[in-house]
Write a structure and sequence with these properties.
The complex is a heterodimer of chains A (201) and B (220).
Chain A: H1 15-18, E1 26-27, E2 48-53, E3 59-62, H2 63-68, E4 72-79, E5 84-95, H3 96-99, E6 109-114, E7 119-123, H4 124-127, E8 133-138, E9 141-142, E10 152-154, E11 167-173
Chain B: E1 2-6, E2 19-25, E3 31-37, E4 47-51, H1 60-66, E5 74-79, E6 93-98, H2 102-114, E7 121-127, H3 136-140, E8 145-151, H4 168-174, E9 183-189, H5 190-202, E10 210-215
Parallel strand pairs in B: 6-7, 6-9, 7-8, 9-10
Antiparallel strand pairs in B: 1-4, 2-3, 2-5
Classes of the chains: A mainly beta (201), B alpha/beta (220).
Chain lengths: 201, 220
């Protein structure tokens, strides 16, 4: 802990929410947008989602195929590394477990890749076992492009930059390759409960 | 709005465009943290932050209203390795700022001046009113930088700048031709950044040449 900031009182949270809010975070009710570049324009006619890399037969879905996959609706809290958290957000999409069904792989790591060139790295363990989804609805509405539509990753137990916007696929890998923010000063895993924000945390 | 200047022992230096995390600790151990863009150039002796006071904020009212000369502040940084610009870069520089989004862009312009960068630079800066313009006099005094203001909520007598939201026509007049290979930094509230970035993409600017940083109204 640092020193006392003279005269600082701060706003205390109520006890219910504070047990749900990781250290250094504060709760917002709006939905801030953060991204490193322009919002890509996506043509759904040409859109595909792929699983590739360490896999015998790469898998690929068109937009129509993707929407036909079994979906789940989940309500989770999200935590952005820029310090806001938003509680009880509801998303609909396809579990990564569903996408990886029947896949036999030696990979322990993945790189999630997006339109616009964004990538983020995720351990395979962090996106399997009911922990991650590829989502296309937020609050019952199609996901807005600013928020990553048509589809984004949704990995709510990690800082929200891991929930890559405009996602186009998952590359299965034997080694860990740092993604975009992970190469630009941000933590390789990003667990908000351990406050893994930056290099060295 | 306030600019705060800090002597930071053992500061490792920073790049123009980076930010720091500020952490406040109450006497019972309660803490609050927020990120602020660095306003000073790497060449300056003191680290400067320019903080907009948000009425419903938790940290900014303290920084703007309570903090006094001589107080200590817990800082962490510098942070971020993407929204940064180095004066050694040669491509024409286009900076587009909305409101307090001008702060990291000011760090770039200060860096350009102090490091004697030779890249031609232009700043398009959108403010609500004349009184809201941050660094107005300092911007007037910058040499070799084209500064273009636009005001969205008033049209003062004698004002020669733009008086509307950033649009395609304005960018057509201000932005460097795509053929010159410019690099672009846009910072401001989300709708501002979305609009400016989409307009530039529509004008043929390659998306990877446009770097964005967005401020939500999130009660900092």
């Amino acid at each position: 802990m640092g020193f006392i900031s003279r005269g600082f009182k701060g706003r205390r949270r109520d006890a219910t929410s504070s047990s749900r809010v990781p250290p250094g975070q504060y709760v917002v009710t709006d939905y801030p947008v953060l991204s490193a570049g322009p919002t890509p324009r996506v043509n759904l006619e040409q859109w595909t989602f792929s699983i590739e890399g360490e896999i015998d037969e790469p898998k690929r879905w068109t937009w129509k195929d993707f929407l036909a996959l079994p979906s789940e609706t989940v309500t989770k809290d999200i935590h952005c590394v820029t310090k806001w958290s938003k509680l009880d957000t509801t998303w609909k999409g396809v579990s990564v477990d569903t996408l990886l069904e029947g896949v036999d792989t030696a990979a322990e790591f993945t790189t999630v890749f997006s339109d616009g060139g964004y990538t983020t790295n995720l351990a395979l363990d962090d996106i399997t076992g009911g922990k991650a989804w590829v989502v296309y609805e937020f609050d019952g509405q199609p996901l807005h492009p600013e928020h990553g539509g048509p589809v984004r990753m949704f990995v709510p137990h990690l800082y929200f930059w891991k929930s890559a916007k405009w996602v186009r696929g998952i590359r299965l890998q034997k080694e860990e390759h740092p993604g975009f923010w992970e190469s630009n000063g941000y933590h390789i895993r990003g667990d908000p409960w351990q406050e893994q924000r930056y290099w060295g945390d | 709005m306030a600019s705060l200047y800090f002597d930071v022992p053992d500061w490792q230096g920073h790049l123009a465009g980076q930010h720091v995390d500020v952490r406040l600790t109450a006497d019972d151990g309660y803490q609050a943290e927020r990120s602020y863009s660095i306003a000073s150039a790497p060449e300056e002796r003191r680290l400067a932050l320019t903080v907009e006071r948000l009425d419903d904020g938790e940290v900014s009212p303290y920084l703007v209203g309570e903090l006094r000369a001589g107080d200590k502040l817990e800082l962490r940084g510098p942070i971020g390795g993407y929204f940064v610009w180095r004066a050694s870069e040669q491509q024409p520089l286009l900076l587009i700022g909305g409101g307090s989004g001008v702060v990291p862009l000011m760090a770039m312009l200060r860096h350009r001046a102090l490091a004697k960068g030779s890249a031609p630079a232009r700043l398009l800066y959108s403010s609500r009113t004349f009184a809201d313009i941050i660094y107005r006099e300092e911007l007037e005094g910058l040499s070799g930088v084209g500064v273009f203001h636009t005001l969205t909520r008033e049209k003062p007598a004698g004002w020669s700048g733009y008086t509307r939201r950033v649009d395609a026509e304005m960018l057509g007049e201000v932005a460097w031709p795509v053929a010159e290979g410019p690099v672009v930094f846009i910072c401001g509230p989300t709708p501002f950044v979305e609009a400016a970035a989409s307009l530039l993409v529509g004008m043929g600017y390659p998306a990877p040449s446009i770097k964005t940083e967005r401020f939500g109204a999130t009660g900092g």
